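ingest -> validate -> predict -> emit
validate: passed (alphabet ok, no gaps, 151 aa)
predict: started
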Amino acid sequence: MIRRAEGRDAASLAALLRSLNTGPGLHPERITAQGVTRDLIADARVVLLVADEGGVIQGFVSGHPYYDSGASTWGYIMNDLYVAPDVRRQGLGKALVAGLATEAARDGGEYLWWEAHAPALAFHRALGAQETRTNNFSIGGAAFRDLAGEP
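emit:
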């Protein structure tokens, strides 16, 4: 069953988020149940859906509203999509993305936007998503503080 995340899901979600965020430069040790509750479940800006099979959280998707000024439309950005490895290829990923699309449409949105990494490209193409060429940029640390005018 795909449903909105609740406080009781925080520990399971933290474990899944730690599994997702293991690459270079990431800090899975910072992900806690308390942080998930505060930053994702309780924050009204975030839509966080879970795949709940008999009380076991097997995956999740997170997103938030986004306005595309070029198209003059609202939609959602899909931040994270994760399904536990032992239950992949059973339709949970597609169901989670469809759930987020439903939430976006309820909010008047007309699209989902996300970026994907090489191992998951076939999955995203199978949804009918089209690749767009963009350059992604990130700024953090001292450079961010300098840009923001903070010490």
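The beta strands are 2-4, 47-53, 56-68, 73-83, 112-113.
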